[in-house]
Design brief:
By secondary structure, the protein is an alpha/beta fold. The chain contains nine helices and ten strands. Strands 6-7-8-3-9-10 form a six-stranded mixed beta sheet. The longest helix has 16 residues. The protein is globular and about 50 Å long. The two termini are 31 Å apart.
Length: 258
């Protein structure tokens, strides 16, 4: 691997006496599609939240294109320069959450256009024009004036994807993006993610239990347990010829066909 897009070294995260990540090392290449799998509580979502600066690491470093997202010596204390660098790097990362997190009082266009106006300083007209284009991209061009309560779960998640894309990130994080959906709605969201990945060189990290999708789509799978990566490799290896007994037990409990 050349200089990794994301470089994580010695990453630890503790919540009081509970250690969620312990000495985690991980590199992600430019344009790579990495799936993070493992049991609940293994630290998968915490990795994404640390990348989004929604949580503060207890120890360790995270770099984006060789620049520190968190100061390496004391992550809990950011000076003015470190805070400015963190904000600049974080704006290049988009995240789609499990539960949509749409603003119920804003229509779909308003939800998508809000951050580009408030954070990126775009005009209302420019932000709304971009939002309309993104809605077309996710197959919801006729839903701009609808409110979240009027949408299905799959439609809400596609709006959430459009909202994340509105900040023009080059790294996208998906945290169980389909787990809150009824089974018949999962496919429409996965289709949008698949089309998004095929359309450019975007780096993507997925936390998911949709192992059939992982098998088709991921370049690499990392299996986490107890806050550590215990096994990683191409999907054909990890999903069909796992080497670690914990991976074998996890896969035996999950249906690979869904």
């Amino acid at each position: 691997m050349t200089t990794p897009r994301i470089h994580i070294s010695g990453l630890c995260k503790r919540f009081g006496p509970v250690t969620v990540l312990e000495g985690l090392d991980l590199d992600v290449a430019q344009g790579e599609h990495l799936a993070l799998i493992g049991p609940s509580g293994s630290g998968k979502s915490t990795i994404l939240r640390l990348l989004m600066t929604l949580e503060t690491p207890s120890e360790g470093t995270i770099q984006i294109d060789s620049e520190d997202l968190w100061p390496p010596h004391n992550p809990s204390e950011l000076d003015r320069a470190a805070r400015a660098q963190q904000k600049r790097l974080a704006l290049r990362i988009g995240m789609v959450f499990q539960h949509f997190n749409l603003f119920p009082h804003l229509n779909v266009i308003g939800n998508i256009a809000l951050a580009p106006q408030l954070v990126a300083g775009r005009s209302a007209a420019e932000a709304r024009q971009q939002a309309a284009a993104l809605l077309e991209r996710v197959g919801l061009g006729d839903k701009g004036e609808a409110y979240p309560a009027e949408l299905s779960g799959g439609q809400k998640q596609r709006v959430a994807i459009a909202r994340a894309l509105a900040m023009e990130p080059d790294i996208m994080l998906f945290d169980e993006a389909t787990s809150a959906l009824d089974p018949e709605l999962v496919g429409e969201v996965l289709s949008v993610i698949r089309d998004l990945a095929a359309s450019g060189d975007m780096t993507m990290l997925f936390v998911t239990h949709q192992l059939h999708f992982v098998e088709q789509f991921a370049d690499r799978v990392a299996m986490l347990d107890g806050g550590k990566i215990i096994e990683q490799g191409p999907p054909s290896q990890v999903l069909h010829n796992p080497q670690h007994e914990r991976t074998c037990a996890f896969l035996a409990a999950v249906d690979l066909s869904h």
